[in-house]
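request received
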Amino acid sequence: MDEGFNKFKKRVLKEHLIKCLILGVCLSAIINALLFVMLKRIPFDLHFVIYLLFFAILSFGLTYLFYKTRMPSDLKIAKRLDKTFLLNEKVQTMVKFEDKDNKILKLQKLDTENNLKNIPIKKLPVKISALNFGLILLTLIFVSTSFFVPAKAKNPSSQSNNSSSDSNSFVSTDSFNTNSEGTTSGDNQSGDGEGDSQSQDYQDQLDAIRDLINQSDAENQVKQDMHQAIDDLEAKLDNAKTEDEAKDAIQETIDKVQQIVDEANSSIEKIANALKQEKNINLIALGDVLLAKDIDDAINTAIDSLNNELKNYKDQELIDNLKDIAQQIKDALINSQVSEDDALYQALNTFANSLEEIANSLDTKLIDEDRGQERIDRAINQLKEDILNALTLKNNNQNLADQVIDVLNEMLNPSDENDGDPSDGEGNQEDEENKDDEGEANPNEGEEDDENDPNVDSDGETIYGSDDTIYTDEGYGKYGDVLDNYYGKIVDENNAETDEDLGNILDDYFASLYR
Amino acid sequence: MDKELEVKEFYELVKKVKEELQKDVVGQEKVVDDIIIAILAGGNVLLEGVPGVGKTRLIRSLSKILSLPFSRIQFTPDLMPSDLIGMNIIEKDENGKLNTRFQKGPLFANLILADEINRATPKTQSALLEVMQEHSVTVSNQTYRIDEPFFVMATENPIEQDGTYPLPEAQMDRFMFKLIMEFPSDEELVDIVNMTQITMDETALEVLDGEKILAMRNLAKDVPVLQEIVSYAMHLVSSSHPEIKNTSEVAKKYIRYGASPRAGQALITTAKIRALIQGRYNVSYEDIDALAYPVLRHRIKINYNAINEHLSCDDVISLLIKENKKG
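response:
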């Protein structure tokens, strides 16, 4: 091809290269940003250099690919030149008939070449469409947004070895000497280096909370939210300059934890209220039962009543009522505005879907009525199980919240602050138990108001429930578990035998410690 | 001859023809350009115009410029086919024996002026069919070829419809171009009067002859046309047919009958000539668009919708071109 055409061709190819570069780099940046976000959420850390390398290789690859596959042909370039410079298809004709030869064609080529030579190359406007700029903008938005996506916190469960069920002994936080196997924490809290030791204590307590959360049977979302709250608290405590700031942060977290659980457990009330708005009396009754938070018998009774209602229907009436009840349940679920991930929501939704399926099968005569009733029975049983599981989960949520709040309260009001006693290493926990192995449940004096403290009997003696949480040198655990282990140790020491009297005395004593 | 020189000469000759024509015909540049294109393309031309605009004068002037044997035939209602073609006559030879001899009619010339062609009867008009297409005449099973180049230039008056016979479609299709001579402007009228006050005769001089015309025609055949432009031209022709599936909306709305394939041939042939005349060596889309009007206006029949909306044939052709470009 001639000089005139070639000069424009070079220009067009340069432009094409720039466009491919923009496209390649932008796409590569977007892919990189997506990868970055994905790895953040896993979470999985990659070194910055690897991202850079990946970006560079992908950019190059994509640019090359686009350059080669979308390279404009000579004819396309010719079309553009004809259109831009109003050459009446001269260039296209020249390109198209390049391989042919006759005298007119030669003249045509010469004429076109002269035309092109006389046109300065700058007259060809650069053709970069607005789409390219849009893509650049989109890329910038993607990339900048990717930095703001929060990384998923790593689960610190591996950090703590503490397991409540493993504790054979316990030690009060403030230590006093016990015959625990663990270390006596001694006068950790009081004493020199108070700031450092306090922050270490906070860390230990936060780790213990994390253990509690991990081992709990609460709902996953609740656990996740609580972990997030604890992570936030940890960050705030790191940044807190004064004790007051730290306490504020702890109090906030206490409120947050309760809020998390209240929100999670509010689904029962919402769904129950929504069910009570429906027409079917048995659904209304179920709503009442859920509101009353009676589990087991009452729930089963309400659900059985629904089943009995369905048994009274036959033929088309049964189909219509199945559909009607299913629809009412679904309407109630929608009106409750509860998340679809909620366990109770899912239990009722699954039940409603089952009823619809059964109705459709009956309608289309896939199954007969007997078989239909069997399936209804199965759906009813499944519903009972699901609701009970859902309610148990809600209870677990609250239990977990209670445990966590107990620990947080302990952080907020450590025992030497509460009773104002000189620290003798006297422990006092938010939860109470500090326990002598004399077995004297000696409540710490000044543990708030004894009169109001449900853990304190009329004699001023502290009474602990088996589910109450205490702090041991291996972390937080249930009082009942600790005693079991302790009792076991005593028995072991005596070679699995106890003198009957001694055994009775021990039994009585330990039993008295349980509420 | 070197092609470059030939092309230069082509351009010069055409320029000269125009100049000579303009000595006898005032204005009408577009018509003059188109008529030259038609001649060089070897096509027949139908000239339409109101009386007195110079249709006959133009063709007579042309005959002088082309220095070709010229026949002028005034079409009247009593004209017979044999008046055009010729007839066998009986004559005695030297020995007194009776022989038949074919007496050639006025069609046996290179340039035919069929004046007021629509005044002759359809029977007479159809006598032109063979000669216009095949450049030959068949009489009593004997075919007589007519010397090349051969053109028929016909004139018609669009005003008087009484005592006239519209040309049949078959004959219309044999005209490469239909050109419309508009009424001259005031300045042109002044020039006409000034010119004709001096002399009424045509003063144009000879520029071309038959051989040169044929040579120019051959030269133009080599002008390259992009396949896309050929497709564009053919699509323009086919889109004028309302009965074709997926045809243009314009055709469906405004056209009763579309153009024949001869229109497509005419478009490409004349586009090559036009490109050369304009100093280009290739056909462009602009050539096709410009030539669409003279090529299609007599081949397309508009329907009542177009008439109702006061659309002329040229208006419909414009719409067709617009629609084609969008597509």
